[in-house]
Design goal:
The protein is of the alpha/beta class. It folds into 3 domains: 122 residues; 162 residues, ABC transporter transmembrane region fold (Up-down Bundle), CATH 1.20.1560.10; 238 residues, Rossmann fold, CATH 3.40.50.300. The strands form 3 sheets. It has a 6-stranded mixed β-sheet, with helices on both faces. Strand 11 and strand 12 form a beta hairpin. Helix 11 packs antiparallel against helix 12.
């Protein structure tokens, strides 16, 4: 009536409240941040990423369990409907009753379908939230594990995270969610008749036994498949990176034969796992149909004996089918769940073995006074020691040349100086503070590093020189002048302008699209970017021509003048003309260290062939 209608302001306020409530409900079904939940874009702490991911999907899990309970309760509707049709409508001919129970049945099935769709969406959203919470931490730990053992098998990483996400949103997971409700349907079978309940119990136990046998039989095959898959893809990726060398060395046929053997082992393991799963899936389906038929036959016998009604026959068949369906669903998708669980264990092992990362107090920008105190270090992933008890000091504004024969430990020393590797014993200090006392990312801003193997990344030339500063939120107006300045100092400005799009030229992985000499000049510009206090150059003139080497000498002079400390490893002696001191390594030990002229004179004297002496009495 008109008198009961709310005034316009109150109607608007009520509508606003309802709208806000709907927005909050929808936000809860999505993965948007809310109070206390944290932003989905913020990475979880690496030391606690597993627990953080679990906490992040706690609300999703609660809703999924609630929806599963509602769905399984609504699955009783068809059985109740058949009981009413056969026991009430048919004997009495009550069409109004048929209409009403049919309407209730339609509403129940509609609600069940909606909840089932929401549950599937929530599972997909939960897997997406895990990706957003754990993706960055997984990549960080995979990189850290790879740095520690570059020659070992690839550590668990994004591929394993994808397997976990796929398992979460798989149909087998829905079967696992419905599995706890199997006892409810068995209980309703007992309500119908004792022997129908017994038949449902025996059938459930039989299918459970098949599921357990499937898990035991497939465990070995899936473990073997995971190992062989990782081995093949690692070898294949390595071959793709070395495609040109493989062709030039005539290794294509031999390597293809080796990789095909790996591939054959992988596909054999994949086929074995598929055969095991197919056999048990087929057995489960046959047993389920047999048990459903047995339940139908048992119900018919009990109806003939007047122990249950005619509706009980159909209800028994529906209930037993629903009781067995989750187990069949789990068996059919067990491979995906098992691989997801194995991937989860691999990821957990990566984080369990990860070194804790304590927050570091920010330290002032270093001047560049370097001290090595009894440093011993080895190649990554190897047990042997490449450097033994190295101790020396370098002052700001000095250029230190590091020389020695192959295998003397020069590259290992460069990695330690650039904080690319951690000493096994001893300490690396800059301005008195140990490297380990610094936050690694903060210290990296003050270190310019040109490794022996030039690594450029997919992105523009400017991005590579600026170390992808735009990804950190810096504007092009701020970083552009620094990029050009570094390129000019490295003698790379002209060659970059000659590229198709200049500084915006997009490079492929490992600098694909430019020559090794161009890549080395760009990498040198990256090492000089933002005027670092510490510069470590490992064979910077390996791919340079005379003009490039002249530019390198000019760059070292400029770095000296602004007070940076520079370490240069070189087999070619041209760069030694600009150094202040020389450090000589041999078999991992420091042989000499001091002013350039003194050390080079000492080396020349040492390498000078001894003058033969005349035997006594000779003329």
């Amino acid at each position: 009536m008109e008198g009961s209608t709310l005034p316009a302001p109150e109607r608007e306020a009520a509508a606003a409240r309802v709208g806000n409530w709907l927005k909050r409900a929808l936000r809860r079904l999505r993965v948007e941040p809310d109070e206390g939940g944290g932003s989905v874009s913020d990475p979880a702490p690496p030391s606690d990423v597993i627990a953080s991911a679990r906490r992040g999907i706690r609300r999703h899990v609660a809703l999924i369990i609630a929806f599963s309970a509602s769905i399984n309760l609504l699955y009783l509707a068809p059985s109740l409907y058949m009981l009413q049709v056969y026991d009430r409508v048919l004997p009495t001919g009550a069409m109004m009753t048929l209409l009403l129970i049919s309407l209730v049945m339609l509403v129940a099935l509609f609600v069940m379908a909606q909840l089932d769709g929401l549950r599937a969406r929530l599972l997909a959203r939960a897997s997406l939230r895990i990706e957003r919470l754990a993706g960055r931490a997984v990549m960080e730990e995979a990189l850290a594990a790879r740095r520690g053992a570059p020659g070992a098998a690839p550590p668990a990483g994004m591929r394993e995270l994808d397997l976990v996400r796929q398992a979460i949103s798989s149909p087998a997971t829905i079967g696992l969610l419905d599995l706890p409700w199997t006892p409810l349907f068995i209980f309703v079978c007992f309500v119908l008749h004792f022997w129908i309940g017994v038949a449902a119990t025996v059938g459930a136990l039989l299918i459970f036994a098949i599921a357990l046998l499937n898990e035991r039989a497939s465990r070995k095959a899936l473990t073997s498949l995971a190992g062989k898959t990782a081995q093949f893809y690692s070898a294949h990726d390595t071959d793709l990176q070395a495609a040109e060398s493989i062709r030039a060395l005539g290794l294509e046929s031999a390597l293809l034969d080796r990789r095909l053997r790996l591939r054959e082992a992988q596909t054999d393991a994949q086929t074995d796992a598929a055969f095991v799963g197919a056999d048990f899936s087929a057995a489960t389906k046959v047993v389920r149909l047999l048990l459903q038929s047995a339940a139908l036959g048992l119900g018919a016998w009990l109806a003939v004996e007047r122990q249950i009604s005619a509706g009980g026959i159909i209800a028994a068949a529906i209930l037993t089918a629903r009781a067995f369906a989750p187990v069949e669903q789990v068996v059919g998708g067990w491979r995906q769940v098992a691989m997801g669980y194995a991937a989860f264990k691999s990821l957990r092992a990566v984080f369990d073995n990860a070194k804790p990362r304590e927050p570091r107090t920010p330290l002032p920008a270093p001047a560049g006074r370097i001290q090595l105190e009894g440093v011993s270090a080895g190649p990554p992933g190897a047990q042997n020691i490449a450097l033994y008890n190295i101790s020396f000091t370098a002052q700001p504004g000095e250029v230190i040349g590091i020389v020695g024969p192959s295998g003397a430990g020069k590259t290992t020393l460069a990695r330690v100086l650039a904080n690319a590797a951690t000493p096994r014993t001893g300490a690396m200090r800059v301005d008195g503070a140990r490297y380990v006392d610094w936050d690694a990312k903060a210290l990296a801003r003050f270190i310019g590093y040109l490794p022996q193997r030039v690594d450029l990344f997919d992105g523009t030339v400017g991005d590579n020189i600026s170390r992808f500063a735009r990804e950190e939120g810096y504007g092009l107006e701020e970083i552009g002048p620094k990029v050009v300045e570094a390129a000019q100092l490295a003698g790379a400005h002209e060659l970059i302008l000659a590229l198709p799009n200049g500084y915006e030229t997009v490079l492929g992985q490992n600098g694909a699209g430019i020559s090794p000499g161009q890549a080395q000049r760009i990498a040198l510009a990256r090492a000089l970017y933002n005027a670092p206090s510490i510069i470590v150059l490992d064979e910077p003139n390996a791919h340079l021509d005379s003009d490039g080497e002249a530019a390198l000498l000019v760059a070292l002079q400029a770095c000296r003048e602004r007070g940076a400390v520079c370490f240069v490893i070189a087999h070619r002696t041209g760069v030694l003309g600009v150094v202040d001191k020389v450090l000589v390594l041999n078999k991992g030990q420091m042989v000499e260290y001091g002013p350039r002229d003194n050390v080079l004179a000492s080396l020349q004297q040492r390498n000078k062939p001894a003058t033969p002496t005349k035997p006594e009495g000779a003329r």
